[in-house]
Amino acid sequence: MIRNTKFAVTAAILSMICVQGGASFAKQLFPAIGPIATTALRIGLSAIILYLITRPKLYTFTKQQWLYCSAYGLGIAVMNLIFYMAIQRIPLGLGVTIEFVGPLFLAFALSRKLLDVVWAALACAGILLIVPWQSNGVDPLGLLFALLAGTFWAVYILMGSKVSRIMEGRQAVSAGMIIATLFILPIALWDGAILHLNLSLFGKGLLVAILSSALPFSLDMMALGKLPTKTFSILTSLQPAFAALSGLVFLHEVLTVTQWLSVACVVLASIGTTVFSKRDGQTPKNQEVQ
Predict the structure, then answer these.
(1) Which of 152, 148, 184, 180 is nearest to 69 (CA)?
(2) Where does the record place the EamA domain (predicted)?
(3) What's the Cα-to-Cα distance from 279 to each of 64, 273, 285, rounded to whole Å?
(4) pLDDT tens string 193-203
């Protein structure tokens, strides 16, 4: 039992490392093809990978299922596009921290516990520590993009909850990624940068897709099969910290002491609201197709 738990915890941690490592490698593509083409490349390749893994029976979907999957996929596309536009302007760790506030405040909104006011205040303190009240080198537009990405993350969670009630989760994710690809591809063609892909850039895009979707998808399934939902949520609450570390290691993005304190506030707020949530069997608030 202990061995299974250790394996599951390791799988959850490796999943976070993969997701944030994938985001770091994606950011390295921005100078060559920009965030729009990078989003299209990553989502498109992820859709192919997930389709091959899950083999969804698309021909069996009802009209309602297609409608929900379309809204779900649209949320995936917009969320990821805006997030990439954010981290083009600000460090990865700050981008994930700001974005994380979306699902965090959704959890607060759905809660009826007075204690959550404390966690909400802690999350707000974390955000206020990042806001560039003075000239501190943080791009305000990047922060706004990250906040918008967090808003769409919350919408994505709500749509994911709805779609999971009428169909199997893996098929919904795969279908949603296909819809997201169909939405983002015309935008990327209009942008034009994706037409300048070469074999090297395509290979890097494939690596991003594997790290961001295929590996985390599989690792999360392993972890969720052996860990209580609440434990899994507590572990994934560490995403902003892993993002900051990934930015430091792969992108040499050094955060200030204040910015690290901001990350810590949001992480603690997320852990707090998870630990003191009413139900142990609820859907993790901070799962994302990143």
Answers:
(1) 180
(2) 141-273
(3) 29, 11, 12
(4) 999 899 999 99
Q: Report residue 70 as tokens.
A: 């379309």
The angle that helices 257-275 and 92-110 make with each other, rounded to 10 degrees, is: 30
**Of residues 140, 217, 120, the one with CA closest to residue 177:** 217
User: What do you get for the CA distance between the two ends of the chain, in Å?
Assistant: 31
Cα torsion angle, 178, 184, 190, 191, sign: negative
Beta strand ranges found along 3-81 (DSSP E): none
Beta-sheet strands, E only, within 27-104: none
**Which residues, 6 or more positions from 195, have their beta carbon under 8 angstroms from its beta carbon?**
189
Buried b (16+ CB within 10 A) or exposed e, 101-127: bbbbbbbbeebeeeebeebbebbeebb
Other Cβ atoms less than 10 A from the Cβ of 11: the count is 22
* CA 250 – CA 208 distance, rounded (Å): 13
C-alpha to C-alpha distance for 221 and 225, rounded to whole angstroms: 6
d(CA 273, CA 190): 42
Contact of 85 with 30, CB cutoff 8 Å: no
CB-side exposure of 181: number of CA atoms within 13 Å?
18
Assigned token pair, 155: 């919408």
Q: Among 116-120, 240-244, 282-286, where is mean pLDDT lowest?
A: 282-286
Global confidence as pTM: 0.88
